[in-house]
Amino acid sequence: MFDVAIVGCGPVGALAANLLGRAGLSVVILEKERALHPLPRAVHCDHEILRLFQSAGVIARLLPDLTDTDGNLHVGADMGVIRTMVTVGMARPYGWANDWFFYQPELEAHLRAGFAEMAHVELRAGAEFTGLAQDGDAVRLRYRQDGRAAELTARWAIACDGSRSPMRKALGVALDDLDFEEPWLVVDAEVDGPVHFPEISGLPEGVDLQRLSVMLCDPRRPATIVPGRGRHRRWEFMLLPGETDEAMMAPAVVDALVGAWLGAMPHRILRAATYRFHGLVAARWRVGNVFLAGDAAHQTPPFFGQGMCHGLRDVANLAWKLAAVARDGADAALLDSYQPERDPHVRAVIAAAVAAGRYICEIDPQNAARRDAEMRARAASGVQETATDLVPALAAGVVLTGTPGAGERFIQPRLDDGRLLDDATGGGWRLFVRSPAAAMTAAGVTTVAVTASGDGGALAAWLDARGVDAVLLRPDHYVFGTARGSAGPLLSAWRKALGLPSPVLA
Ligand SMILES: Cc1cc2nc3c(=O)[nH]c(=O)nc-3n(C[C@H](O)[C@H](O)[C@H](O)COP(=O)(O)OP(=O)(O)OC[C@H]3O[C@@H](n4cnc5c(N)ncnc54)[C@H](O)[C@@H]3O)c2cc1C
Distance (Å, rounded) from C-alpha 388 to C-alpha 211? Predict the structure, then answer.
């Protein structure tokens, strides 16, 4: 019996396989396609995802094919800026730039190469899930491969089988519809030089439009343009009432839409396809020993480029919990925290994307002019934001709520010796203490003395800002909790949260 069976080897299933494999669990992945999906859908991810790639040991493979950029800009009907989420000149507390672009087939190939090196992780390509049964201790999956029916058994299964998720359907899980659905045309191209932007007023100081995701909230045709990695460029154009998918995908229409940005610049259209952008969240993320993750559990309009990021956060959340139960003796009840932690998180970011979608997709000129005035008034009132602010702290689950900083994403300073914090401390549970005298040690937790960490004072400043002397960090880099004085009570709360049977304190 495998520890974990993953159904679907898109980006979410592939990261899950890496994280679980690195934790030493035996993993099998069923993927119905023989070859990687050759076209990009996601193009953007954020600093937290880079940190997860770092945790999964795949960052060195990925970095040469990633490009960091400077954030988002929303432009109104009069071609003036109405919202900026720009990171130029800002601190990078998490160790990575906030915004990164990639080419999805490359990203997925690198993720697969990562787990291919692990003997206890097996990809069965061309294996299509057809059904399941479970009895409380194990999940039995049925699938077809090479025209033959087959079965396998795993202690847990994760449905990473995408938006149409046959597993979700087999489990009878309904989707909550967040009441947003708009048709957009997505065009990918390779372009041999900079694109031409219209004259945009009110640009923030020092920004380079070629390094930004620009949302043109133009009621005549809302559109997005984002820089990809290398020569890749992505455009998204909203379909207007009466326009059909077929007509909009016609090469002449695509050429005209994209040509307005390119003039004589040589380019090659890679693909043009229409999508329905919508907001959906599964009512249940777990049925017995089967968990839903990625697009199987939720879908978001892509206005902040977070759909895949949500899925990668899902499996980062789940992987350390499955490993704690399978390997470290944690109580299986720990797994009950998956949906309470992830569901509100995902809904908050989808709500922000839906709210942005409602004003972006405005096609009435008068409403658009009113929107622009309101958004400029909001910006003038001093609201400053980056896309980082969209992702909330964890409010429930395996966090010591009530302690300062609990549930926040923890910083990742670069150390004096050039390493990033996680590379120096290793993954897993980490206890940072101001004074070694205040520390207690516990099996399964790495203790780090902040005074000796050589981080230019970033960790001490984090503790100072929250008035605490110790912080306990989860394997997914969220703060479990903090303490003043001795870290003993923090470790006791940690053991209780994980349901660890016999505390081993030194
Ligand atoms: C136009 C567009 C732009 C986007 N931009 C972004 C962005 O910039 N940033 C971002 O974070 N997200 C973005 N997204 C969302 C992102 O593409 C998805 O969230 C992400 O690809 C979902 O990954 P997944 O692994 O959950 O599912 P998928 O990538 O859909 O993978 C599911 C896998 O399951 C397999 N499968 C299905 N059924 C079976 C079966 N019966 N048996 C075995 N295998 C099966 C499929 O073959 C597939 O390989 C965008 C989406 C779109 C449409």
Answer: 17
